[in-house]
Design brief:
Largest sheet: 6 strands, antiparallel
Radius of gyration: 17 Å
Oligomer: single chain
Shape: globular
Number of strands: 6
Helix content: 25-40%
Strand content: 35-45%
Order of helices and strands: HHHEEHEHEEE
């Protein structure tokens, strides 16, 4: 019986590991992957505006915004990875980025979603796109949305300057747990 359980766990792990490739933009060339990312951005924003109409004014008045496609998976230990683009509203500059996180996960899961971040100030936007930006395991990692998608005021200095929205296959999520999440520029696409 233990052997069957081990085989099942290994098979599930292999299936979930194969989903990692789903969190990459499609295309053979960097130009194709950029176009795929921009298409994902457009559809994610359209869905956000449909489900959370107030988000449009947050995005339009921000210093910039980011849109990521993510896939979260795990068997006991889980994590997520994804790709996206950051738009600097003042300059029009785009930075294509990657993200990943890890953590404990009860059970077996795989879930795709979109993460949209609105930067309230240029300094936070620049810090986010410059190198590796990481939400730690302290209070700054506890991003929590309200019905309008706002951040938890106790979330720390960095996240007070960022409004997070999370879209799932079932619609708008009221929380976005970004503990231990890293974001960095994708050198192959910039």
């Amino acid at each position: 019986m233990k052997s069957a359980t081990l085989r099942t766990t290994l098979a599930l792990t292999a299936v979930l590991a194969s989903l990692v490739g789903c969190a990459t933009p499609s295309g053979e060339t960097a130009a194709d992957r950029r176009a795929s990312t921009l298409s994902m951005r457009d559809s994610a924003l359209a869905e956000l505006y449909r489900t959370q109409p107030g988000a449009r004014s947050v995005i339009e008045t921000s210093a910039g915004y980011a849109v990521f496609e993510t896939i979260a998976m795990g068997v006991g230990v889980g994590g997520s990875n994804g790709y996206g683009v950051v738009e600097d509203r003042a300059t029009g500059q785009r930075t294509f980025m990657r993200m990943s996180s890890g953590g404990l996960n009860l059970g077996v899961s795989a879930k795709e979603g979109k993460l949209i971040l609105a930067f309230k100030d240029k300094a936070t936007l620049d810090r986010f796109t410059r190198e590796t930006f990481e939400w730690g395991s302290d209070a700054a990692s506890g991003v929590k949305g309200t019905s309008s998608g706002g951040m938890n005021e106790a979330a720390g200095a960095a996240t007070k300057s960022i409004t997070a929205y999370q879209l799932t296959d079932t619609g708008f999520a009221l929380t976005a747990n970004l503990a231990g999440t890293k974001f960095w520029p994708d050198k192959s696409m910039n």
